[in-house]
Amino acid sequence: MNLFSTLETHFTNLDNCPLIESKIFESEQQKERYESYIMFAFRKFRSLSYHLSNVNDLWRKEADSLLEEIVDLPEMEGASSVRSTMKVNKDSFDFTYELSAFLGALKSCLDLLSETTSFYMKGISVNFSISTLLKQVDKKKGNILAFVELHSNWIRTVRDYRHPLLHRLVLNARSGYEIHRFNDKTSRVLYPVLIPETTPAFVPDTRQTRMMNDDLPNLSYSEQTITRINDGIEEVSDFQINVEPSQGYVRIEDFMKKHEAKCEKFFIELIETLDKLDFSFDTCT
Question: Cα 167 to the chain's mean position, in Å?
Fold first, then answer.
């Protein structure tokens, strides 16, 4: 079941929920607030695809720039085998800005969903904070808290990645390309925009580090060469340079896709957990 149909079912059940003592609502105003928090969370979730789309657009612009680049590599007269490379890389903070907004919206989605769960738990106030809800996992037991515990590692990963990025540092994302020529063959390589897989560490941003920041050390290279025999001589008929993230790094778009999917899964399964409670209070002991 997708998120749209999950919410549709939940809201239908909400409309049919009576205002009686055994249920969590005492008034239509409480129902209104409850539904609004879920919809606010849904709007935040929907913005994740917006920021991911922006990152993909930025990357396509980089690709277009590479395709438009005129290859003007040096000639080496008299050489039987010519190999030359041109490299271009630059700061690309636009990618980082989108990532920061993505993580901010994701954390806000989780905070709003945590406030929704507080309707079901007497005596527990989460104050719009998924971190507060996580703390309850170690103190009490219940259906909602058991569900949160199942996702606790992912929640902490999001929280711990987002916090320094929004409050303590700015990732210096880099983009660019290489153009390799082997005799009359050319291979164009677009750098992936890479970020740390886990909580980013502090990296200095000074005049000296910016002046020295010419390399992309987080890339792993591989090469494929196709050869043929011409008049008894082996010649290169084609070759290709490939780049991939080094260990501990990931393409920014893959990072965002992964956490968007995990957020949707969390959202759906949480609503399904609430449906099982049928708008009755969860037993927290």
Answer: 18
Phi, psi of 258 (to 5 degrees): -60, -45
Give the bridge partners for 186, in sequence order. Answer: 181
123 lies in a domain? yes
Q: Give me 85's structure tokens.
A: 């490379």
d(CA 224, CA 226): 7
In a domain, residue 126? The reply is yes
CA distances to 104, 149, 193, 279 from 60, rounded to whole Å, are 24, 39, 12, 47
Pairing of strands 185-190, 174-182: antiparallel
C-alpha triplet 73, 77, 83: angle, nearest 5°? 45
Here the tokens at position 188 are 């164009």
pLDDT of amino acid 182: 76
Q: At what angle do helices 143-150 and 252-277 cross, to 10 degrees?
A: 160
99: which 2 tokens? 């990532």
Q: How many residues does the chain have?
A: 285
Distance separating alpha carbons of residues 220 and 214, to the nearest angstrom: 16
| pLDDT bracket for residue 91 (50, 70, 90) | confident
pLDDT greater at residue 6 or residue 74: 6
DSSP alpha helix (H) spans, 69-122: 93-117
- Tell me, yes or no, whether 283 lies in a domain: no
Domain of residue 151, residue span: 3-197+204-277
- Specify if 118 maps to a domain: yes
- Angle, helix 28-68 to helix 93-117, in steps of 10 degrees: 160
284 closest CA partner among 165, 128, 117, 98: 117
The count of structural domains within the chain is 1
